[in-house]
Amino acid sequence: MTAFQIKESPEQYDVCIVGSGAAGGMAAYTLTQAGVKVVMLEAGPMYDPAKNVTQLKWPYESPRRGASTTLRSFGDFDAAYGGWELEGEPYTRKNGTQFDWFRARMLGGRTNHWGRISLRFGPNDFKRRSIDGLGDDWPISYDDVKPWYDKVDRLIGVFGSTEGIYNEPDGIFLPPPKPRLHEMFIKEAATSLNIPVIPSRLSILTKPINNSRGQCFYCSQCNRGCTVYGDFSSSSVLVKPAIATNNLTVIPNAMAREVATDANGKATGISYVDKETLQEHLVRARVVILAASACESARLLLNSKSSRFPNGLANSSNVVGKYLHDSTGASMSGFLPKLVDRKRYNEDGVGGMHVYTPWWLDNKKLDFPRGYHIEYWGGMGMPGYGFGFGIQNVNGKFPARDGKQKPAGGYGASLKDDYRYFYGAGFGMSGRGEAIAREDNYCEIDPNTVDKWGIPVLRFHYKWSDYEVRQAKHMQDTFEEIIHKMGGVVTSTKGTAENDYGLAAPGRIIHEVGTTRMGNDPKKSVLNKYNQAHDCDNLFVMDGGAFVSQADKNPTWTILALAMRASEYLIDEMKKQNI
Amino acid sequence: MDRRKYLKSFTLGTVGAGVLLESCSTPKETPTTGATKHEFTIDRYKEELEREERLQNETFFNEHEMKTITVLADIIIPRDDKSGSASDAGVPDFIAFVVKDMPAHQLPMRGGLKWLDVHCMKHYGNAFIDCSEEQRIEVVDQIAYPEQAAPEMRPGVTFFNRMRDLTATGFFTSKIGIADLGYMGNTPNQWNGVPDEVLAQYGLKYDDRTNEICVRY
């Protein structure tokens, strides 16, 4: 019987990064380009969208026709290894509240399957407390981040259009694709209601930007990962070139346990367990960057307890885990009778909407703070599991090909023809809005539960307030108005007060941020304005944990910009020998 | 007689399938049980491969249930002048697999099939597949139209809704079904907007700014 041993790596790295998603990838890319020796720990296996292929596969290549499983929550072709529940890695909830946590365990993390919606936060988004008195201002402004957004746009590529809307800053854009048919009807109707509809802003290459990545070929499958790297994922666009510098060592299947510290309270490395061999390891580095996702990074800090840091590392403020917030979300789907019996053509387009609605109203005239944007979907998509479900709710409501109304349901040749006839006439929309970050929405260590490696797990406590519920009500009313204006019929059940107007459960939009927020006051924040821990100057947190407020924008582009900014700051500090 | 041929003859309505089924010796080839090995051409990670292997070695439906599912699926999606039937498209295999993959289907499907047989035994003295074609259609007519069905037929309606959903999904995600539907994507291309003749059909056109700023190939 072998004694329990911790294997120490002989090598001392400059920087150890935990996580390989947007933040970890960007940190690795920036640091290795500058010659810094980096080791990256990833809790899942290696992954390369050019090799691990589900793109351009047909539904029948999956025995479940693309349906989801517990091991792939967003469907059999989706490029996220993991999902809402991971075997042997539980999380718990407190006081009957709800929070759902989506985790991907693979190189590149959730950026392999994400929606590619790449929106900049606007000037107002960094200063919300000054505007409405709620939450807190960021310690930085749009002007501080703008140069970094510009660099991210150039490095990664994003399409969009120059609109000159104050709080929706324009970027350095590739040309956007033209709207699809249903998107033209949406635009026509919404515009007549004074709801703006503009080209979407997605990190997909409508034109090539370099020799290492191909141009989009319009299969609409960005969530499957792209074999030509025509969209942004950290695995293909950041980690791959970082490996090519020979300055990056990636250790896959490495589940981080805690941040190691010395007697002076400095970070000295990361202890982790190799998930394949169950061997315990310690990897040493001069600097530690946590980029494991907002909640996972908070968990690491809270689990890094010592006599010096009794409530976890970098947590003298007691703020680690607090101010957790996810985007709000509500949806409605519709049916557009004028689209029945459509002429067939390939309208796949890019992987996502070609148009969207940025927030357009003045909260002073509304009963809720903060805004939301609207995402649209629809059209003649590739059939998958679920295609044709509930036909009795459609073919009993609308006349068939011969103009006659049939009874709902049925069977046989007549039913078979209904599926063809109604194909491509469905569409829908979703709101994604800003919640208020609150101290009493948090994750903490569950004192009673460990995962299969013995690591204490997170326990969540999260409740929506009336602000978010009223915002969801506004979404529902707006969606209904747009659908009716289009001449469409609402096919989903409209949310009511009883179900918080269809407001998605916290965590479901997978924009969770705020758990290690930045600020100027070390008593009220975990990080300074460069993502550096107030309590420990060789420790950084670069993921969404650093966010003070979420904005009604998807967080990835801001995570990338802040991670690049923080990495450049770190390089400077290392050069000055401050770290 | 080959099972596929019998199904074709059934859907063409030339001979009562029940008669044929009776006259057929039990097919020597293994009846569909969803045990067909699926060759994966899509990316799978380690834990998935282990689960796929486990699922493929399981059997849920028995032979009688599979025969019933096959007959029902071909009533729901028959061969017509455009494409083949549900069983031509491998729908029974798909249903056999998916109930193993999604246990939530198991009880409603097994119970529903049993309800159907018991109902047929009461009224016709035979299990569903042993009824005449006319009798089968008579019972399907009583459960296929949710808004018209008699209250005592609700369990059958609920079952048939699920059976119809799984059949349609299985069919239209098959090679035959995708071709029938006319889905034209899933292939590299360049998007230049909605085709002109479609814009004309709906009286639409792209505005000048859209034409100016959007990508063209």
Query: Mean of the pLDDT scores of chain A?
Result: 97
The chain pair with the largest interface is: A-B, 81 and 67 residues
What is the count of helical runs of chain B?
Answer: 11
Helix-strand pattern of chain A: EHEEEEHHHEHEEEEHEEEHEEEHEEEH
Mean of pLDDT of chain B: 88
* Distance between the first and last residues' Cα of chain B: 55 Å
Low-confidence stretches of chain A: none
Percent of residues in beta strands of chain A: 15-25%
Structural class of chain B: mainly alpha
Distance between the termini of chain A: 42 Å
Overall number of strands of chain A: 19
Question: Which sequence of SSEs, written as H and E, runs from N to C of chain B?
Answer: HHHHHHHHHHH
Secondary-structure-derived class of chain A: alpha/beta
Low-pLDDT windows of residues of chain B: 1-32
Give me the oligomer status.
heterodimer
Largest sheet features of chain B: none
Tell me what you see in this structure:
The complex is a heterodimer of chains A (579) and B (217). The two termini of chain A are 42 Å apart. Chain A is of the alpha/beta class and 579 residues long. In chain A, the strands form four sheets. In chain A, strands 1, 2, 7, 8, 9, 10, 18 and 19 form an eight-stranded mixed sheet that branches. Chain A has a six-stranded antiparallel sheet with strand order 6-12-13-14-11-17, with helices on one face. Chain A contains nine helices and 19 strands. The longest helix of chain A has 20 residues, at 466-485. Chain A has helices at 22-33, 128-132, 142-156, 181-192, 234-244, 294-303, 412-422, 466-485, 556-575, and strands at 6-18, 38-41, 82-83, 92-93, 103-104, 198-199, 248-251, 254-261, 267-274, 280-290, 328-335, 355-357, 372-378, 426-433, 442-450, 456-461, 489-490, 532-533, 536-541. Chain A is globular. With 217 residues, chain B is mainly α. Chain B is built from eleven helices and no strands. Chain B has helices at residues 3-12, 17-23, 46-56, 63-76, 91-101, 106-124, 133-143, 154-172, 175-181, 196-201, 208-213. Chain B is extended and about 70 Å long. The N and C termini of chain B lie far apart (55 Å). In chain B, 38% of the residues are buried. Mean pLDDT of chain B is 88; it is low at 1-32. Chains A and B meet through α7 of A and α3, α5, α8, α9 and α10 of B.
